[in-house]
């Protein structure tokens, strides 16, 4: 009885470690993305759009006295000057200046977010997530100047900045919304036993991540953006670029590839849900 009492005292200390051990591994990455998203929102709120300058007044027409005598002495022939001269042409109104953002400030805000995200993927197994960020991160349009409104300052229009902000919000939302850092990937091929080449990135230029694995097996990998290629002697390769394993909310994803013989007129295809 004394021994049972001894172990029962340890149960309250062991139980939390057993129950919460797995979520603790997932929490730091999710918390990091949430922190980056919050930091970006605060930084963007501090970016004030440039207010349009006061619009210049249109130039007034030349002044001619209604009473020629008021203009002072002069030849009598000039007494009808105001009535005989043609009216001056109308002056065009100045161009309206729309609300814009300082391009340099916007670029610094977006570059800061990208740098924080890239620092979140220091290990090789997280390079799929890095590839996802590199592929999905919005590209800001080229800045320009509007000399008549803002002089030589490089600016971006408000719609351009809002569009890029929305795209970045989707990237951060997808990363923050991942239910787990890892996902089970199942690959089936017809015919079976094809060789798998799984690479980081949408175009497969980031290096091979896994190779030489026979199909009809499941593997647990970190979520990210991948390029899948299946090979088998006598068959055309089956490709699946831009395999997105970030946005799925399920714990597993299945890919089915149908391979065509080398002499076939059809192409080998891979499909994912």
Question: What is the C-alpha radius of gyration, as a whole number of Å?
Answer: 34 Å
* β-sheet strand percentage: 15-25%
Mind summarizing the main beta sheet? 4 strands, mixed
Unreliable spans are 1-25, 57-64
Mean pLDDT: 80
Content-based structural category: alpha+beta
Span between termini:
57 Å
Number of individual domains: 2
Number of strands: 11
Q: Looking at the structure, what is the overall shape? A: elongated
- Oligomerization state of this entry? single chain
What is the topology, as strand order, of the major beta sheet?
7-4-10-11
- Helicity, as a percent range: 25-40%
Order of helices and strands: HHHEHHEHEHEEEEEEEE
Number of helices: 7
Structure description:
Strand 5 (195-200) and strand 6 form a beta hairpin. The chain is of the alpha+beta class. The chain starts with a helix and ends with a strand. It is 35% helix and 22% strand. The protein has helices spanning 2-8, 11-45, 81-84, 103-119, 127-136, 147-150, 158-176; strands at 100-102, 144-145, 154-157, 182-190, 195-200, 208-214, 217-222, 225-231, 238-244, 252-258, 269-271. The strands form three sheets. It has a four-stranded mixed β-sheet with strand order 7-4-10-11, with no helix packed on it. Mean pLDDT is 80; it is low at 1-25 and 57-64. Helix 2 (11-45) runs antiparallel to helix 4. The protein contains seven helices and eleven strands. It folds into two domains: 25-49 and 98-176; 182-271, Immunoglobulin-like, CATH 2.60.40.1120.
